[in-house]
From TrEMBL:
Taxon lineage: Eukaryota, Metazoa, Placozoa, Uniplacotomia, Trichoplacea
Subcellular location: Cytoplasm, Cytoskeleton
Record-level GO cellular component terms: kinesin complex; microtubule
PANTHER family: AAA+ ATPASE DOMAIN-CONTAINING PROTEIN (PTHR45641:SF1), TETRATRICOPEPTIDE REPEAT PROTEIN (AFU_ORTHOLOGUE AFUA_6G03870) (PTHR45641)
UniProt organism field: Trichoplax adhaerens
Protein name, per record: Kinesin light chain
Family stated for the protein in its record: Belongs to the kinesin light chain family.
């Protein structure tokens, strides 16, 4: 069976390819694949689905690895907003995103901000 270009399985495949690229340090390729995945997910799932938040988190991680901290924080905050709305403030994904934001602040030398995210 051939899947349409906007099938959710295609988005998942793009996401998996992006993860491999990211692990290899091929960040531009990773971003390209994550953005393809995001485009499909936004079309199929809408703006506020937890899977969208996961993709924002993945994109943020790439930006963090590239040293693009402001872009990373922007993506992490988009992810956090969706997860807080859809999953509630006690979901493990919230803690993960707070930890990720703290890591960016640490990388920027903003230790008080990093600590505040962890408390």
């Amino acid at each position: 069976k051939i899947l349409k270009n906007n099938h959710p399985s295609i988005a998942k495949t793009y996401n998996n390819i992006a993860s491999v690229y990211s692990d290899q340090g091929k960040y531009d390729d990773a971003l390209s694949m994550y953005n393809k995945s995001l485009k499909i997910k936004l079309t199929q799932l809408g703006d506020n689905h937890p899977s969208i938040a996961d993709t924002y988190n993945n994109i943020a991680s790439v930006y963090d690895n590239q040293g693009k901290y402001d872009d990373a924080l922007s993506m992490y905050n988009k992810s956090l907003k969706i997860d807080l709305t859809q999953l509630g403030d006690n979901h493990p994904s919230i803690a993960t995103t707070f930890r990720n934001i703290a890591s960016v602040y640490k990388d920027q030398g903003k230790y008080d901000d990093a600590l505040s995210m962890l408390l």
